[in-house]
């Protein structure tokens, strides 16, 4: 009988409890999901104009693109000029402290760029930048 008790306790000591390990893995997964940032793309390929005085800007939460055909794109959807303010307001609710970047094609009209920037600023976003290429 003594042998049975010894073998039963030896078998129970060999079992590995993985529950705490799974808890840690799930906590780390949640941490990485919450702290990660996702790259947003406007939905159209833009050839940006060159600039010597360009400075790098990171973590823009609102990206607006103006194509060479004077089409406005936000979050891979084409938007009319009158709708820019409404769409930017919706994006601003997601990230109130976010900044905006306008990617204007070098072939697009400057007037449209100015009007888009005015629409963005009308939503309360004060930090609006125009994207350029380094020369």
Explain this structure to me?
This protein is an alpha/beta fold and 135 residues long. It has 2 domains: 2-35; 50-134, Nucleotidyltransferase, domain 5, CATH 3.30.420. The chain contains 4 helices and 7 strands. The protein has helices spanning 2-14, 19-35, 84-94, 110-121, and strands at residues 50-51, 62-66, 72-74, 77-79, 100-104, 128-130, 133-134. A 5-stranded mixed sheet has the order 4-3-2-5-6, with helices on one face. Strand 5 (100-104), helix 4 (110-121) and strand 6 form a beta-alpha-beta unit. It is elongated and about 75 Å long. The model has no long low-confidence stretch (mean pLDDT 81).
Class from helix and strand fractions: alpha/beta
Note the total helix count: 4
Q: Do you know the CATH topology of the largest domain?
A: Nucleotidyltransferase, domain 5
Distance between the termini: 86 Å
- How many structural units, i.e. domains? 2
The count of β-strands is 7
Order of helices and strands: HHEEEEHEHEE
Helix amount: 25-40%
Seen as an oligomer or otherwise, the chain set is: single chain
Shape: elongated
Largest sheet: 5 strands, mixed
Residue share in β-strands: 15-25%
Sheet with most strands: strand arrangement: 4-3-2-5-6
Summarize model confidence as the mean pLDDT: 81
Please identify the top-level CATH class of the largest domain. Answer: Alpha Beta
Gyration radius from CA atoms, angstroms:
26 Å
């Amino acid at each position: 009988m003594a042998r049975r008790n010894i073998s039963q306790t030896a078998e129970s000591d060999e079992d590995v409890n993985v529950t705490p390990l799974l808890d840690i893995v799930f906590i780390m997964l949640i941490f990485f999901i919450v702290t990660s940032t996702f790259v947003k793309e406007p939905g159209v390929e833009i050839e940006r104009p060159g600039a010597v005085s360009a400075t790098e800007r990171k973590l823009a939460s609102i990206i607006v693109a103006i194509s060479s055909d004077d089409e406005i794109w936000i979050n891979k959807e084409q938007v009319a000029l009158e709708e820019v303010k409404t769409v930017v307001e919706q994006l601003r609710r997601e990230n109130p402290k976010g900044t905006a970047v306008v990617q204007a094609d070098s072939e697009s009209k400057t007037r449209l760029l100015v009007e888009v920037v005015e629409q963005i600023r009308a939503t309360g976003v004060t930090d609006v930048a125009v994207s350029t290429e380094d020369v």
